[in-house]
Design a protein that fits this description.
Order of helices and strands: HHEEEHEEHEHEHHEHEHEHEEEE
Number of helices: 10
CATH class of the largest domain: Alpha Beta
Strand content: 25-35%
Bound molecules: 7-O-phosphono-alpha-L-galacto-hept-2-ulopyranose
CATH superfamily of the largest domain: Fructose-1,6-Bisphosphatase, subunit A, domain 1
Radius of gyration: 19 Å
Number of domains: 2
Helix content: 25-40%
Structural class: alpha+beta
Number of strands: 14
Oligomer: single chain
CATH architecture of the largest domain: 2-Layer Sandwich
CATH topology of the largest domain: Fructose-1,6-Bisphosphatase, Chain A, domain 1
Largest sheet: 8 strands, mixed
Shape: globular
Distance between the termini: 50 Å
Length: 337
């Protein structure tokens, strides 16, 4: 019986890899488009909660059309703190494979509330068991784009050592590099150390999913490396994106209280100091989609025009490495109002 069940899972997984993910990648774009449009109505309104709620409602409705038997593993929070899209919630119409879902209907609620750059609606899908079940704690992260030799950056090395290794790999000087870091008091020392090397820094207010993804296209974004401590859920989402684009990333959960260690243990994490490699945060076949809510370096924000609206989405999958840049003009129907 057990081996029968094992076979079944393998079959499902191979069909996900071979067929369904082609369709799902495009369907995921619809999911993030809907969430982004809903949130965009709230841009600059100063109401983070309302913007998030609008995005959550829209994303959930769209997710339930997908032909998947999905479980949210990275969501709006744990069951008792989030009314919808909580960790463990089942989504999809069940006519499809079992998959893990990581989502953030509005990554950068504050950015959206102030209408600043790079707030996104984001979803990632992986084979069941493929995404790290991270608790909602902080994660120390380091990420670079594709093309450098494996192991070029490492959380166990100093910022100066990592920057020197990246500069060497790219054939540039350290002072030619640009690091993206969240503007937080906890990063005072990191910022000082990076400044001492002569590298440039882009301090961002929020939005480190975009911050990490920026490293994969440094020619356009001007960001070569992401460093510092942000949310662990955002870390898993960014890892899913990097699995598709190529690049390197490591993450270490910050489990600095017994309560956090216990929460992580309940999610199956036994070593609180473990450094997760990219493939350990997002394993197997992975798909990722993000739609811009506000204008940013990664994606344009939603544009409302007379009778239509324009969305800008990136949709990608790891099995082929295809990165689709999708600009869509939608007729304004009741669906989007
Ligand atoms: C970061 C940021 C996110 O959470 O992950 C941040 O990139 C971490 O938390 O956009 P703090 O704000 O406590 O530093 C977000 O701001 C999203 O909540």
């Amino acid at each position: 019986m057990a081996s029968q069940a094992g076979k079944q899972t393998k079959l499902e997984v191979s069909s996900l890899a071979g067929r369904l993910d082609r369709l799902l990648t495009m369907e995921m774009a619809r999911v993030t488009e809907a969430a982004a449009v809903a949130a965009a109505r709230m841009r600059g309104q100063g109401d983070e909660m309302a913007a998030d709620r609008a995005a959550v409602d829209a994303m959930r409705a769209e997710l339930n059309h997908l032909p998947i038997d999905g479980t949210v593993v990275i969501g709006e929070g744990e069951r008792d703190e989030a009314p919808m899209l909580f960790i463990g919630e089942k989504v999809g119409n069940k006519n499809g494979p079992m998959v893990d879902i990581a989502l953030d209907p509005l990554e950068g609620t504050t950015i959206c509330a102030k209408n600043l750059p790079d707030s996104l609606a984001v979803v990632a899908i992986a084979e069941a068991g493929g995404l790290l079940n991270a608790p909602d704690v902080y994660m120390e992260k380091i990420a670079i784009g594709p093309g450098a030799p494996p192991g070029t950056v490492d959380l166990q090395r100093s910022p100066a050592e990592n920057l020197a290794a990246l500069a060497k790999a790219r054939g540039v000087k350290v002072k030619d590099l640009s690091a993206c870091i969240l503007d937080r008091p906890r990063h005072a020392r990191l910022i000082e150390e990076v400044r001492a090397t002569g590298a440039a820094i882009r301090l961002i207010g929020d939005g480190d999913v975009a911050g990490v993804i920026h490293t994969t296209n440094s020619a356009n974004t001007g960001i070569d490396i992401y460093m510092g401590i942000g949310g662990a859920p955002e870390g898993v989402l960014a890892a899913a994106a990097l699995r598709c684009t190529g690049g390197q990333m490591q993450g270490r959960l910050i489990l600095d209280t017994p309560e956090k260690v216990a929460r992580a243990e309940r999610m199956g994490i036994s070593d609180p100091d473990r450094i997760y490699e990219l493939e350990e945060m997002a394993a197997g076949d992975v798909m990722f989609a993000a739609t811009g809510v506000t204008d940013g370096g990664l994606l344009a924000g939603i544009k409302f025009r007379d009778g239509e609206l324009v969305t800008h989405t990136v949709a990608m999958r790891s099995s082929t490495g295809t990165v689709r840049d999708i600009r869509a003009r939608h007729q304004v129907t009741t669906k989007f109002i």
